[in-house]
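Appendix C reproduces, verbatim, an entry submitted by the partner laboratory led by Prof. M.T., so that reviewers can inspect both the input and the predicted structure.
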Amino acid sequence: MLALHAKVIVNPVAGAYSTRRKWPRISKLLRHVGLSFDYEYTEGVGHAIELARAAASDGYRYVVAVGGDGTVNEVANGILYSTGSSNTSLGVVSTGTGSDFARSVGIPRDYNSACSFLTSSQRLLIDVGVVEYKSKGQALQRFFINAAGVGFDAAVVETTERLPKYFGGTIPYVAGLLRTLFGYENKSVVVHLGNKVEDKRVLSIVVANGCYFGGGMYMAPQAELNDSLLDVMTVGDIGKFELLKALPTVYKGTHINHPKVRMEKATHITIESSERVLVHADGELLGEGPASFWLMPAALSIVV
C-alpha cells in the first residue's frame, strides 16, 4: 500500500444529513489536491470504528474521516484498536455540526480548505484519552481525542441527539442545553484525582484534551493536545439561573474565573456516584458511571 494512498471513511448523515450531498464536491477536491484514495460510507453507529480498524490493520497508513466529531472519534478508535496504529495517520475533513476537534487541532472547519491540508507532510502526535464506563451492566472502554465527561453535559448530549438535525454550529448544543436545564438536578459524586478524594455536589465534570466543546465553547482554554495532561473542569453546585447568566462567558473562556468552576490538570481521574450519572465522549453519549479517565501520551498521529 502506497504511503499516500488513503482510506476515506464518509459518514453521509453527518452535518444534519448534509455530508452525502457534499461528498461529490469533496471527492473532486481531494483528487484535485493529488490525494490517492478509495472510500466507504458508514452505515450506522460504530461502523466507522470497524472500517478504520480494518483499513489500518490491512496496511493503509492514512485514514481520513469525513464527518462530525462523532465520526472522527470512531475513526480514531478504529485506528487505535488496529494492529497498525503506531504507523497510521488520521486526516480530518469536518462536515459535522460542532467541529470541535477541528477547532482544537487547528484544522479549517471549511471543507474546501481542509481538503488542501490532507496532502501535508506535517504530523502532530497527540495524546489520547481513555474512558471506562458502564453500559447495560458491562464495563466498557472508549478512546477520546477531544473531550469527555459526566453529568449535565452528558445529559445535554443525550437531549441533543433526540432533537431534529436542522442546524450546525453551536445551535443544536445550546437548544439541548436549554431543554435539559430545567429538569436537571446536580449530582453528588466522589472524585479521585491525583492523591485527593473529594465528596462534592456538581453540575458537571469535563475531562478535556482539546480546548473546544459543544460547538465552539472555549471550555478548556489552557488545554493542549500534546502536553501529556488532561484538563479537568469541575462545575460545582451551581443554580440554573446562575448557569444561564454565566453561559456567554464559556465562549470567551472566562468562565474559568467563576467561583464555582475549578480547573485542574491530571493524568487520571475517577468519578463515582450513588446516583445515575451519564458519560459522554467527543459529543457522543456512551453510558453511565462510575467512570474513570486516563491518558495515553503521544498515541495518535494527526495530519495538519
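The longest helix spans residues 19-32. Additional entries are available on request from the coordinating office.
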